[in-house]
Design a protein that fits this description.
InterPro entries: Tscrpt_reg_Rrf2, WH-like_DNA-bd_sf, WH_DNA-bd_sf
Distance between the termini: 47 Å
Protein name: Transcriptional regulator
CATH architecture: Orthogonal Bundle
Order of helices and strands: HHHEEHHH
Strand content: 5-15%
Structural class: mainly alpha
Largest sheet: 2 strands, antiparallel
Helix content: 55-70%
GO molecular function, one term: DNA-binding transcription factor activity
Number of strands: 2
Radius of gyration: 20 Å
CATH class: Mainly Alpha
CATH superfamily: Winged helix-like DNA-binding domain superfamily/Winged helix DNA-binding domain
Strand order of the largest sheet: 1-2
Length: 153
């Protein structure tokens, strides 16, 4: 079963953009994300419509962040992507008149709704700034480790 990884991909792109001084082309972002530039443009379009990014054409053009990272949450980005389904699982609806199917679907619906509510609450507390800070810490630790390994040689 194919999973929807657009949120993860967009967060990946946004962190690259936040760490970059200037605009990033769809081609550069596609290279970072191991995907196709067309996929980048299609995915970023929803973010542009939500005012999270902007794009400029021409020489020195590309995608830039158009928002304050500390004010944008993962929930905002999820919504800008069209609120894709959170779960790949779903109910069986082959025989809606079946009382067993109704009982199972009611239990699953309640559980899915409860879990999705908790997930969206958590997404609402996580900002892009927090992710960018985590990335910066990891990058600094990596560079320090690599520097120490170079000095040991």
């Amino acid at each position: 079963m194919k999973r929807d990884s657009r949120l993860s991909s967009v967060l990946h792109a946004l962190l690259h953009m936040a760490a970059n001084d200037g605009p990033m082309t769809s081609e550069a972002l596609a290279h970072c994300m191991h995907t196709n530039p067309v996929v980048v443009r299609r995915t970023m379009a929803g973010l542009r419509e939500a005012g999270l990014v902007r794009s400029e054409k021409g020489h020195n053009g590309g995608w830039t962040i158009a928002c304050d990272l500390s004010e944008v949450t993962l929930r905002d980005i999820h919504m800008a992507l069209g609120e894709p389904a959170v779960f790949a699982m779903g109910n069986r609806n082959e025989t809606p008149e079946c009382l067993v199917e109704q009982a199972v679907n009611a239990a699953l619906d309640d559980t899915f709704h409860e879990i999705e509510t908790l997930l969206m609450e958590r997404f609402g507390r996580l900002t892009l700034a927090q992710l960018a800070e985590d990335f910066a810490r990891r990058l600094a630790a990596y560079r320090q480790k690599m520097g120490n390994e170079q000095n040991a040689i």
